[in-house]
Design a protein that fits this description.
Layout lengths: L1 H21 L3 H16 L10 E8 L13 E6 L2 E5 L5 H7 L7 E5 L5 H4 L2 H11 L6 E5 L3 H11 L1 H11 L11 E5 L6 E4 L3 E10 L2 E11 L2 E5 L7 H6 L5 E7 L1 H14 L2 H9 L7 H10 L4 E8 L5 H7 L10 E3 L4 E6 L6 E4 L2
Parallel strand pairs: 3-4, 4-5, 5-6, 10-11, 11-12, 12-13
Antiparallel strand pairs: 1-2, 1-14, 2-3, 7-8, 8-9, 9-10, 14-15
Helix pairs in contact: 9-10
The protein binds zinc ion (2 copies).
The site of one zinc ion has 7 residues, from helix 4.
């Protein structure tokens, strides 16, 4: 036994000395760097490769701050193509961390024009333009007012587009496709895409005074997803989400907001005191979300846009108390919660990207 310990000690000492020596050699350092850069330059995407409809939460919080979550964003992958629903603050970092292929993003959809849903559009434009090498302007679909959003970004970034084109040339930064191809959604013609396999339909939800506010239903080869956007309890959402495999629905905890309200009062935070009451009339309490999902007969309910977002698993348990009694299959999402719906199957595979 003593001998074995002695041998082990000398082996560890030997490899320690070799590593110490090698790590100080420029040629060995260069090899390590080369390997690391190669790995970073050919990243593996976290998205499934098989033919499926996938929904991935790229932002799970409301404007109420949480350091570990981005604001509203849902990525939908149908076959090879990717569509983004809302681009809240922090969502671009998530997609970058997860190596989402920018070239596959075929359009961005806006549920409504609140800042926590639109704030990173400028960066999504840049990434799809340069990294993604798209061959046309970025397609944007949104409610009335969305043209002002895209016109405003184009105006603000006029110089940026020109400087990048002058520096990198037409191959990397072609000016003719800088900017947006914007479609204002008219609910009299709610089907926005229908190519035989993929159908994306807009529907109205209630988020007064935000009007119009939209939800979206995505159907792909027999599988389906519905995304609520921001809404209070809404029968139209239930109608349009009928029998979908997965419903992504916003959620609000009245109890948590009331605690925040009390603490705001006690600490003299006037803004907090007013806002924690204001928001209660245009979001959906957790239990009502579960009831809506149950009524719509959805396969799996995924809560997102938590107002406020639970910071610990205990807070999550408290916030979602009572949901089990209403609906069997549900998940309180984090950034990275993913639902994969393979075609020709009834499977709903829920996972969490770390
Ligand atoms: Zn919101
Ligand atoms: Zn909103």
């Amino acid at each position: 036994m003593k001998k074995l310990v002695k041998y082990l000690f000398f082996i560890i000492l030997f490899f320690g000395a070799v590593s110490f020596f090698l790590l100080r050699q420029p040629s060995f350092q260069d090899k390590l760097l080369d390997r690391a850069v190669t790995r970073l330059s050919s990243p593996k995407s976290v998205l499934p490769k098989n033919d499926a409809l996938t929904g991935l939460v790229c932002g799970s919080r409301s404007p109420l701050y949480d350091p570990n979550r981005a604001e509203a964003c849902i990525l939908v992958k149908a076959g090879d193509d990717i569509y983004i629903f809302d681009t809240g603050n922090g969502s671009l970092k998530n997609l970058t961390d997860w190596n989402i292929p920018w070239s596959k993003i075929k359009g961005i959809f806006y549920t409504h024009l609140h800042s926590d849903h639109i704030s990173e559009l400028n960066e999504f434009h840049l990434n799809t333009w340069i990294q993604g090498r798209r061959n046309e302007k970025l397609k944007i679909y949104g409610p009335e007012g969305v043209q002002m959003l895209t016109d405003g970004i184009e105006l603000a970034y006029t110089k940026d587009y020109i400087f990048r084109n002058e520096h990198h040339g037409d191959f990397i930064a072609p000016l003719d496709i800088a900017g947006f191809n914007t479609q204002t959604i008219n609910l009299n013609n709610p089907v926005l895409i229908d190519d035989g396999n993929l159908k994306i339909t807009a529907y109205s939800v209630t988020h007064d005074p935000v009007d119009p506010a939209l939800g979206f239903r995505i159907d792909y080869k027999g599988r389906s997803i519905s995304i609520s956007g921001d809404t209070s309890y809404d029968e139209n959402l239930i109608k349009n989400s009928n029998n979908v495999d997965v419903l992504f629905h916003e959620s609000m905890s009245i109890e948590f907001l009331n605690i925040l309200n009390r603490v705001s009062k006690e600490t003299g935070n006037i803004v907090g005191e007013i806002v924690t009451i204001d928001v209660q009339n245009y979001h959906t309490p957790v239990i009502e979300v579960a009831k809506a999902a149950n009524k719509a007969n959805v396969g799996h309910l995924i809560f997102y846009h938590h107002a406020p977002a639970p910071r610990t698993s205990l807070m999550e348990k408290i916030m979602y108390r009572g949901v089990d009694e209403i609906i069997k299959n549900w998940t309180a999402s984090h950034d990275g919660t993913m639902a994969v719906l393979p075609v020709d199957s009834d499977e709903i595979i829920i996972s969490l990207i770390k």
